[in-house]
């Protein structure tokens, strides 16, 4: 039985991917900071050698413990799915909140990838959850978009380093997903234009399909998102940024910054 560890697994995309992998006979280790949700999800996954680890990956000590766990267990797959961000213009958002976003989206991703790759063998796979914004920008979410650009570049570089060793690494980049984190943050998915929104089921299906193919280092989820990025090639950079500003819930129509996150 193969073993997979998924961070940010107590809801949204992480939860849906966990369900699908359990259906393919993976033993899943779920990592999140919400114990109640983790326990509920374990029951939902049903029988199998599944387990949950409670961890806040913004906490250095808890991150270190998870690194040690990964470093002493033979996982076939690691999905770095946990991440967060804040909507709002740069100076409206508390600096420490933005630094936490950088710690989780970048530092934790690098640290867990390091621990995993130290033990990874031929046939193993690492998936880093990026974003459409890793290849675009988001006024009203500047730090979040910047962290996802880091994840995209980091993942592609690792893909090349490990491809000849038989270890697959992918940066997976969804657009806006219809998950509960918008409601938890006090916003609605309706704040986004409908044409950019995908369901979490669609996102999870594409992630698992891309993982099966093990072909591309960078996967942009959703035809509409791929078309958007393709269209941006024919615009000036200023015009493309302006379009993203019009889409962004973090620009002037939002008076106060609102946090958003994948489940931790």
UniProtKB/TrEMBL annotation:
Q: Name one GO molecular function term.
A: oxidoreductase activity
Any one Gene Ontology cellular component term annotated for this protein: membrane
Spell out the CDD domains in the cross-references.
Answer: SDR_c
Look up keyword Nucleotidyltransferase and say if it applies. no
**Swiss-Prot/TrEMBL keywords:** Oxidoreductase
SUPFAM superfamilies recorded for this chain? NAD(P)-binding Rossmann-fold domains (SSF51735)
Q: Which family does it belong to?
A: Belongs to the short-chain dehydrogenases/reductases (SDR) family.
This protein is called Short-chain dehydrogenase
Q: Which organism is it from?
A: Pedobacter rhizosphaerae
